[in-house]
Design brief:
heterodimer; A: 129 residues; 3-stranded antiparallel sheet; B: alpha/beta; Peroxisomal Thiolase, Chain A, domain 1
């Protein structure tokens, strides 16, 4: 991944910055230029609440090469308490916690690195609470 | 708009075809379609191809194929909608003939997937998901469809045996299709004991990586009799729809909204309903996809698709035979060609050319092709003339 491409996502991956539509109040994560609910084009920035719940999940046993050292790993669709949905890995889970409805909190983690001279990509993973 | 007919089809056996290049795969199926129709020229051509760039290091595929098919200077356009590229190419060709812009249009699809490693192919396929907000986190396509399966199982009680039944049925059909990549029969036990890729999907719940091409010749329906050697198949309905690129943004994680919408458009245009469809090719990239699609096309009540396939309702001889070709699972899934290959099977079914896997008396058929986790969906309804 190029440095600018990685850098462009710091506000979301590092700081959970979401865009709130000033017209209808829908919270967008990541931000958009037009609201898909009301077509509004003005937004304010909000730090999204870091808690949510698992809507569905899987364990990826054959991962992409960048994730080979992590496989198998759990992934979930999480609905955040502020409304947005995200896909992310689930970390530090115990038996019985990779379930629909499980409450989770996003934590700052390393996602993958690109070898000796590449970028180390950071972002969020969901941890059961 | 003019009525449009398919008057020729062409397709060779799918597989890991080391001796054939991207251009070979397209041109050989296009030549077969031209010969099958018996036309002496084409006015325009389309190429459905998902990722010539990542799979073969080749873009600008429209002109390349026109050149190697000996058809320059006809207009040649490459169409890309991930795994729905073939269906989208068919829609583009349909619109060009319907509009009156061209009379004889070649619609082909192609993908050359085995010149790269399995890992590179996985990467190329993952570009059909949201690279920034899905793939970045390590999720794979089997992983995304596995999450669809978990949600469907949780909401409707769908079981791993029901998922496996899709693969078993499609391999049984594929064993009767000389063009199938994996024509062997398998059992539910084979599926359930195969290696787990992303829970609950085993390797035998997944469609393979495939080299292949497929092609169709389209013309105005009122010229079909004059131009063609065989019975024409009229395109009665054509629907396409889009949905959020990321699976997680869908309101209902157990429904493919674009499939519902595209099918609704195609049903409306054709004047037909689900009960009148006699044979259907659906996009079974994973077993759960066929179950969800069979519900979203209106063949079964929501949540009953799993029980229907397990009960044999989608087998040849059942209520609505699905994937008589073997589907993506057994016939193979050369992604950009798949939507066109589905139409090849339906045309052959409606012309009564399918031998051991023929659906007796079928006159009306349907194809459903989709890209990504269903962010693109294309549905066509056809009737033999």
């Amino acid at each position: 991944m190029s440095s600018p491409r990685s850098w462009r996502h710091y506000p979301q991956r590092y700081r959970y910055e979401a865009a709130v539509c000033t017209k209808c109040g829908k919270v967008h994560f990541p931000p958009r230029l037009i609201c898909d609910a009301c077509k509004g084009r003005e937004f304010t920035t909000k730090t999204m609440a870091r808690t949510g719940k698992i809507l569905t999940h899987t364990i990826v046993r054959v991962g992409p090469s960048n994730f080979a050292d992590q496989s198998p790993f759990a992934v979930a669709v999480v609905e955040m308490d502020d409304g947005p949905r995200i896909t992310c890995q689930v970390a530090d889970w115990n038996q019985g916690q990779l379930t629909i409805g499980q409450k989770v909190r996003l934590e700052f983690r390393k996602i993958y690195d690109e070898g000796a001279s590449g970028i180390i990509n950071y972002g969020y993973k969901a941890v059961p609470i | 708009m003019r009525d449009v007919a398919i008057i020729g089809v062409g397709m060779k056996k799918c597989g890991e075809l080391w001796e054939k290049s991207l251009r070979d795969l397209y041109v050989e199926s296009a030549l077969d379609a031209i010969d099958d129709a018996g036309v002496d020229h084409i006015d325009s051509m389309y190429v459905g191809c998902m990722s010539g760039g990542l799979f073969a290091g080749q873009e600008h595929i429209g002109a390349l194929m026109a050149d190697y098919l000996g058809q320059t200077p006809v207009p040649a356009t490459r169409v890309e909608s991930a795994c729905a590229s073939g269906g989208a190419a068919l829609r583009a060709g349909f619109l060009e003939v319907a509009s009156g812009m061209s009379d004889i249009v070649l619609v082909g699809g192609v993908e050359k997937m085995t010149d790269v490693s399995g890992d590179e192919a996985t990467y190329a396929l993952a570009t059909a998901s949201d690279q920034e907000w899905e793939a970045f986190n390590g999720i794979t396509f089997p992983g995304l469809y596995a999450m669809m399966a978990v949600a469907h199982m949780h909401k409707y009680g769908t079981t791993s045996e029901m998922l496996a039944s899709v693969a078993v049925k499609n391999h049984a059909n594929g064993s009767k299709n000389p063009l199938a990549q994996f024509p062997m029969k398998i059992t539910v036990e084979d599926v359930l004991s195969s290696v787990m890729v992303a829970d609950p999907l085993h390797i035998l719940d997944c469609s393979p990586i495939t080299d292949g091409g497929a092609a169709l010749i389209l013309c105005p329906a009122d010229q079909a009799k004059k131009l063609a050697k065989k019975a024409g198949v009229k395109i009665l309905g054509c629907g396409m729809a889009s949905d959020t690129i990321a699976y997680h943004s869908r309101g209902d994680l157990t429904t493919l909204g674009a499939v519902v919408k595209a099918a609704g458009l195609a049903y409306k245009m054709s004047g037909k309903g689900p009960k009148e469809i006699q044979v259907c090719e659906v996009h079974d990239c994973f077993t759960i996809a066929e179950i969800i699609v069979s519900e979203d096309l209106g063949f079964f009540e929501k949540g009953k698709g799993g029980a229907a396939v397990k009960g044999g309702e989608t087998a040849i001889g059942g209520k609505i035979p699905i994937n008589t070709s073997g589907g993506l699972k057994s016939k193979g899934h050369p992604v950009g060609a798949t939507g066109v290959a589905q139409a090849v099977e339906i045309v052959k079914q409606l012309r009564g050319e399918c031998g051991d896997r023929q659906v007796k008396g079928a006159r009306v058929g349907m194809t459903q092709n989709m890209g990504g986790t269903g962010a693109s969906a294309v549905v066509h309804i056809m009737e033999v003339m």
